[in-house]
Amino acid sequence: MLLTSQAPILASVRDDRARAVMVESKSLIFRAIHPLPGLSSRRVSDCDGFAPCTDTSTMTMTTTQDQAPAAEQTFESFGLDPRILRALTEQGYTKPTPIQAQAIPVVLLGKDVMGAAQTGTGKTAGFALPIIQRLLPLANASASPARHPVRALMLTPTRELADQVYDNVARYAKHTDLRNTVVFGGVDMNPQTDALRRGVEILVATPGRLLDHVQQKSVNLSQVQMLVLDEADRMLDMGFLPDLQRIINLLPAQRQTLLFSATFSPEIKKLASSYLKQPVTIEVARSNSTNENVRQVVYQVQDGHKQAAVVHLLKQRANEQQSRQCIVFVNSKIGCSRLARHLEREGINAAAIHGDKTQTERMQTLDGFKNGTIDALVATDVAARGLDIPAMPCVINFDLPFSAEDYVHRIGRTGRAGASGDALSIFVPGNDDRLLADIEKLIKRSIPRGSLDGFDPTGERARQEDSDRRRARTEVRRVRDNGEGEEQQRRRRTEPNGRQAFRPSDDPFFSRPYEPSGSYTPAPKTEEQLAAALTRGRQAPKRPVAALLGGVPRKS
């Protein structure tokens, strides 16, 4: 690989069996040599004229949408195996995305890579395809587990992302003899243990469950040649860093390390440099940028009206004949469950997904959302990383995230693969000022403010309208039952509150003044009545009850 930051230097390649692809960016020219498909198993360094770069500490490739490579590229131009190309054709892949076009040649050369690209641009294929290509010479159909050691390890921060990466890898490698599996927590370990003991070349895992298998001695990582940290900024966070360090200590020192994410803070870049050796930094578009296909709007509401605002936005989209499916992000687990219950009471088919849910419940909820049986998926940031849900039309931030990078990942669930989408956020003045300022500083743009037309946060307007409708129905029912004439109906309408005015009775009895009656003297009682009253007041003598032992004592 030849690289210069000033003028292009064209190296002569005498081997006519190699192919050169020119990738031109703002101030540099990257020239990669790819073997023909027939020579895919041959190392590039063996080609005549190959001159490895001795100083790669400053190798950086940066392109934007306007600076994309001018030459039309295809997956065939990378020299991928026909079996991989067949799988890509079945998946409907026609041409590589910018991150794939830049990452695949570098990964094929065996270089360490730190890749940053917007969400939904195909980063998974950017590292999975070259890894499969490099492992094909070692693929075999042997039944011996010793012939199938773990050679590529892919780590993800969440269970859902691990399962998704595994699905992609399985589809790309389904026509090869490479074995692959996934291990993550929340499910039974026994099936995972059986798969690991049968042998796999590509292992996708979450750090916690992988360490469980290491402790159970069901997996050996001593032959890992390639390590991938997907969503690397979260993997290098303090929460995962101790487990990640334990895993890296189990890996060989001579390995290829790949880091991919949509966001890289300066602190994360500095920390990542300790895990990489002379890495090639690949950045597609501006760092920490958002997708231009996503319409971002912030709605200002008062504290306590956020749930009503979410209901209003979802019903407004339904009234405008837009898709009702939406992901609603909440910061806390209890807030996630509370909002899902509120949406259910409002007639919106919603379900919650967060860390306290079992893995079976989380997978069933995601399947229901992908199948369309669930309209609103209320989730914590467990669903903000890497989940690829086709044609996701809308994302709502019920709570602004505490980390500005999480905002980029949240809204990246919509507008994927070139589609358009809406990212709606709810903002409470006085509470979220700092969070919103951090987000706008990170993405280097001001988010437009929107207004909620017809928003009734307290529900008073809806209750009044419902009361008027009930009163009208009652009036119609009364007229139908009583058979009132036009004069009675007119009098009822002219009187206040729809009530009849008081009319005095025409009966003279009710007009006479009050006349007290004579004094009441009770009649005297006879002797028989007095005796009967005394008899009723007496109680009958108690009957003797036999003692428990010895019977009733005898009288002397």
Core attributes:
Rossmann fold; eight-stranded parallel sheet; 556 residues; disordered N terminus; 2 domains; seven-stranded parallel sheet; alpha/beta
Topology readout:
Layout: E1 2-4, E2 18-24, E3 29-35, E4 60-63, H1 82-90, H2 98-108, E5 113-116, H3 123-135, E6 152-155, H4 159-172, E7 180-183, H5 189-198, E8 202-205, H6 207-215, E9 226-230, H7 232-235, H8 241-249, E10 256-261, H9 266-272, E11 280-284, E12 294-300, H10 306-319, E13 326-329, H11 333-345, E14 350-353, H12 359-371, E15 376-379, E16 394-397, H13 404-411, E17 421-427, H14 433-443, E18 449-450, H15 460-482, H16 486-494, H17 527-537
Parallel strand pairs: 4-11, 5-10, 5-11, 6-8, 6-9, 7-8, 9-10, 12-17, 12-18, 13-15, 13-16, 14-15, 16-17
Antiparallel strand pairs: 1-3, 2-3
Overview of this structure, please?
This protein is an alpha/beta fold and 556 residues long. Helix content is 34%, strand content 15%. The protein contains 17 helices and 18 strands. β7 (180-183), α5 and β8 form a beta-alpha-beta unit. α3 packs across α4 (159-172). Mean pLDDT is 77; it is low at 1-58 and 62-70.
